[in-house]
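Sanity check

After download, print the first record. It should look like this:
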Amino acid sequence: MFFPIIVEEIDNILRTKGYSLSLCNTRGDCKTEVDLVENIILRGMDGIIAIDPSFENIQNGYYEKINKIIPTIIINANSEEYKCNFVSYDEEAGTVEAFDYLFKLGHSRIAFIRGDKSYSYNLKEKMYKRIIKEKELKYQKIINVGMGNSIEVVNKTETSFKKLLDTQERPTSVFCCNDLMALGVINACNKAGLCVPEDISVIGFDNTLLSDVSHPKITTVDLNMKEIGRIAALELVSIISRGISCRKKTVLDTKLIIKESCSRPL
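Expected structure tokens:
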């Protein structure tokens, strides 16, 4: 749900500039990702836009090395640590805004749901732990549901969250790292006879179409995905035309979109 909006806008912009788009899916596997990048280079393609690539390949300097060979743009959460061309969204600010909203509503028992192997999820978890510590809250619960950007994550989240609901550690609210996970939480609550937001509040992330077609509509953090795709495509074309020695970073603001899935705890 996160990728199609960005990819569609990238394709639209590239077509106007005389380029065509070839899509590759790593399925979140870092080795597959390296194999695909190497194949792209062998095929003599003009550039690469990597959307939320594996954290391992950013951390180990692989993309820094690749950027010296082929123009490369990375789309992911805001990072100051790595020497690559980034188009980023300020997920740290978006995460803080979401938690501040839950605190203003009166929540202190907040669960956190994330996926596997992602800089984005790692950053959000880091913020969650920091906020819990700063607020001196006693409740902390982190659930990892595996690969986070596949449709299967809805069912995986539902199953995992149902197990939490069956314990005495039930939260009053849940922060989900994307809207797919948020839908899984809502489904688990519905099947357990709990109402969202009356019994449990839910916040998602990404502001995908899913957040508007679910019931209730999901309060979520908007990443301005269409603008991310537009800027990434234009930056790549610019780098191709100027050469690949430059390094640039663009960070876009996020915004909490309040809908129907949060309320004051009972």
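If your output differs, re-run the checksum step. Summary of this record's structure: The chain has a mean pLDDT of 93.
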